[in-house]
Amino acid sequence: MGFLQNNFISDFFYWVIQNLTRIMTVDPANPPYLLSIVIIVILIRLAMIPLDIRQRSSSYKMGQLSGRINDIKKRYPDQQMQQKKINELYQKEGVKPLAGCLPLLIQMPIFFAFYGALRTIADEQTIMLVAEAAKSTAQSINLPSFLWIHNIWQPDSALAKVMPTLDEFNNIVKQVPQFASQVAGVDYAKVIAPTLAKFEGMGNGWFILAVIQAVTMYFSQVLTMRQNPGMQQGGKVMLYIFPLFSAYICVVSNSVFAVYWLISNVYAIIQTLVLKRYFEAKHGKIDLPAQT
Question: What pTM, to 2 d.p., does this model score?
Answer without folding.
Answer: 0.84
